[in-house]
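Continuing the batch. This is chain 6 of the set; chains 1 through 5 are on the previous pages. Same settings as before, nothing changed between runs. Recording input and output for traceability.
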Amino acid sequence: MFETAIFYAFAAVLLVAGLAVITARNPVHGALALVLAFFTAAAIWLLLRAEFLAIALVVVYVGAVMVLFLFVVMMLDINLERVREGFWTNLPLALLVGVIMVWEMITVVAYHYFGTTPRQLPPNYSNTKELGRLLYTDYAYAFEVAAVILLVAIIAAIALTLRRRKDTRTQDPALQVRARREERVRLVTMPAEKE
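Output for chain 6:
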């Protein structure tokens, strides 16, 4: 009973954090709400005794991906008025996607209550070992495609935040290599001063 109450409390926090992500007017506040959602999802994974997935969620998403998101959001200096212009035109598509997602969640929950009973696991079962076996055998290509997509996203984020300023001085190595001594140094002979 206590575990069920904790689960519902974490689920409520997760729903509120998810709503804060999509309704926040400031992108930084939305990203911070997403960090809270990831931590709460990790807590739910811990309740389900999937410790590896909980730690991976915190380390990978909160520790790496969210830091990257925050840096990109802060460095891009997004014009919020331009972002809000297309809200009403994209609302029907967003509602359709939301309804499909809610239908999928209801289907999963209904299957859990009215479907078949889950198989019993042996006492020495390791969810980390099983997850690794599935990732690197059955889903190896999908895992590699996801890795390439993340790499492209990182490169795109770096390219978007790279700004060239006109008032900074840069060195041209090719020009430096072509320089000759006669152009750089001029020896001047001057008589010594006498008092």
